[in-house]
Write a structure and sequence with these properties.
Elements: H1 2-20, H2 25-37, H3 39-54, E1 64-65, E2 72-73
Antiparallel strand pairs: 1-2
Helix pairs in contact: 1-2, 2-3
The protein binds zinc ion.
Organism: Aerophobetes bacterium
Protein name: Zinc ribbon domain-containing protein
Keywords: Membrane, Transmembrane, Transmembrane helix
Length: 92
């Protein structure tokens, strides 16, 4: 009995946590069922994926390096201030 109830509450916690993080309804149900039936597999997996997705992909602004002349520049610039080459700031 306890082997069903304990994973159920852990799955419930993960479902509410996933909801707060903007997961879709299908993903929440998938995680809920996965943790409930295979707690030992899906709980560590969720915690790994959660900590990974919590980090921002990259800083919005910061120092960059011109791929043409190699000089450092600050912030988001469209053209290199040193050599004047156009920088693809969206694909960095
Ligand atoms: Zn340059």
């Amino acid at each position: 009995m306890i082997a069903i109830i304990v994973p159920f509450f852990v799955a419930w916690w993960i479902a509410s946590d996933a909801k707060k993080r903007g997961y879709t309804q299908g993903q929440i149900i998938g995680w809920f069922l996965g943790v409930w039936f295979l707690l030992i597999v899906f709980l560590p997996l969720y915690l790994i994926l959660r900590s990974r997705s919590a980090k921002p992909t990259r800083p919005a602004t910061g120092p960059g390096v011109c791929p043409y002349c190699g000089n450092l520049f600050q912030g988001k610039v469209t053209y290199c201030p040193y050599c004047g080459q156009k920088l693809e700031d969206d694909s960095l």
